[in-house]
């Protein structure tokens, strides 16, 4: 009888302690600080944002859904929404794809760990620092911006730059603009009479090491002449005449034109002289625009059309390492027997990757994509730092617009709160999908 009473007491004690093995009031005491902190930092701000989104800029006038109507009618906010769609579609997909490629390709090489370390290192840099770095990378001036320095180098490899960009005829010289940046003589050239073509505004670096200009010799039956920089340091010299110390302009193309058509051409020698055949007699001489075209300045990476893809590139540079590390961890758990069996059955490496590796990594890839999608919806600092003021409107995203509407020049915290609520609604479906996936995995493990 005593043992039965004692057993009943133990059963009641266990019931009182609950499933966690302790008393409910004790668990509540331990959870209360966390719940209070969660309520203060999460629940209250969400509730207040919903409440504040129903009032005007002053916070006193009730406007109902008016702020939400402005969210979908304002051009700036619609641009931000369009850019957010681009971000959500492109950034997680590309970052995950690169992470998958890096994880698979570095699995069998000795220096794979070192490569993964280098790729993951940008994650140690803050968004602020990364934004400053890429603001310099995308600098328009090729002498400062790495991206344009590389791009200009590639361009100039296949297309020779103009020898004397920006140069022009000396005033009162027998050269006049003939359209498109070219210059043509007013008078026709005559065989046996050398022609002088003086130019000014030549950059000093373009004539560094150039030879002294020399007067062209008269050659019977041929048109000769000299093209030179008609400028003497110190202000000396006579305009239109080759003076000592004046530099020759070598490598400059000269054309003989009759009836608007070039019938002959020549290139100036190291001393600035050129010789045209007898057919040039009576023709006018033209210096083509290709001689004076401005140097190729590269791509306007931060212009209105490319600013969003450029910033996405900076984001991928940072987060591809994150994707690679998670995918590499998942790849380490893939049964090697399945891969070897596929190879034994005659599958090549591409087929093994597409038909075996990727399906087995699908849960990990889903985690990476969902995580990056949630992160992308909150992107703010990269856009704010990299995009210049002239392109900030074109690069706008919802998180940045939230900040500008709430704390910018036209402060309207009602609209800012509406954007915050809208962002929350965009994140909730992604979080729901992620939670369902986690719950499904737990059930499968049971």
From TrEMBL:
InterPro entries assigned to the protein according to its UniProt record, in alphabetical order: MetI-like, MetI-like_sf, UgpAE/MalFG_permease
Location of the ABC transmembrane type-1 domain: 81-434
Domain of life of the source: Bacteria
TM regions (residue ranges): 25-46, 85-105, 117-138, 314-334, 360-387, 415-435
Main location: membrane
One GO biological process term: transmembrane transport
GO cellular component: plasma membrane
Subcellular location: Cell membrane
PROSITE patterns: ABC_TM1 (PS50928)
Keyword field: Cell membrane, Membrane, Transmembrane, Transmembrane helix, Transport
Membrane topology: Multi-pass membrane protein
Family: Belongs to the binding-protein-dependent transport system permease family.
This protein's name: Sugar ABC transporter permease
């Amino acid at each position: 009888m005593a043992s039965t009473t004692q057993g009943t007491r133990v059963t009641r004690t266990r019931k009182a302690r609950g499933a966690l093995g302790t008393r409910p009031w004790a668990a509540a005491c331990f959870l209360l600080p966390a719940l209070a902190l969660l309520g203060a930092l999460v629940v209250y701000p969400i509730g207040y944002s919903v409440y504040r989104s129903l009032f005007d800029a002053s916070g006193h006038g009730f406007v109902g859904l008016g702020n939400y109507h402005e969210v979908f009618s304002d051009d700036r906010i619609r641009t931000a929404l369009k850019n957010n769609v681009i971000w959500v579609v492109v950034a997680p997909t590309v970052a995950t794809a690169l992470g998958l490629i890096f994880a698979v390709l570095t699995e069998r090489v000795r220096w794979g760990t070192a490569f993964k370390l280098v790729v993951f290192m940008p994650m140690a840099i803050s968004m602020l620092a990364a934004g400053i770095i890429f603001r310099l990378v995308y600098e328009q001036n090729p002498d400062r911006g790495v991206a344009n320095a590389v791009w200009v180098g590639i361009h100039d490899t296949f297309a020779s730059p103009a020898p004397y960009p920006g140069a022009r005829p000396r005033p009162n010289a027998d050269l006049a603009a003939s359209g498109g940046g070219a210059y043509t003589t007013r008078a026709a050239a005559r065989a046996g009479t050398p022609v002088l073509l003086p130019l000014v505004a030549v950059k000093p670096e373009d004539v560094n090491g150039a030879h002294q200009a020399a007067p062209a010799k008269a050659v019977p039956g041929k048109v000769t002449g000299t093209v030179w920089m008609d400028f003497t340091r110190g202000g000396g010299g006579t305009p239109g005449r080759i003076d000592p110390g004046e530099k020759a302009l070598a490598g400059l193309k000269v054309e003989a034109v009759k009836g608007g058509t070039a019938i002959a051409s020549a290139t100036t020698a190291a001393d600035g002289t050129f010789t045209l055949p007898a057919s040039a007699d009576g023709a006018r001489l033209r210096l083509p625009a290709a001689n004076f075209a401005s140097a190729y300045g590269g791509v306007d990476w931060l212009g209105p059309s490319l600013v969003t893809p450029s910033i996405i590139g900076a984001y991928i540079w940072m987060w591809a390492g994150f994707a690679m590390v998670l995918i590499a961890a998942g790849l380490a758990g893939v049964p090697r027997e399945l891969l070897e069996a596929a190879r034994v059955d005659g599958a090549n490496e591409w087929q093994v990757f597409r038909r075996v590796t990727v399906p087995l990594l699908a849960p990990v890839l889903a985690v990476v994509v969902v995580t990056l999608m949630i992160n992308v919806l909150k992107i703010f600092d990269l856009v704010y730092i990299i995009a210049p003021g002239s392109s900030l409107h074109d690069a706008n995203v919802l998180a940045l617009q939230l900040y500008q509407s709430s704390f910018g020049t036209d402060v309207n915290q009602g609209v800012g709160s509406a954007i915050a609520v809208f962002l929350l609604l965009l994140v909730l479906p992604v979080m729901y999908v992620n939670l369902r996936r986690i719950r499904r995995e737990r059930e499968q493990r049971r």
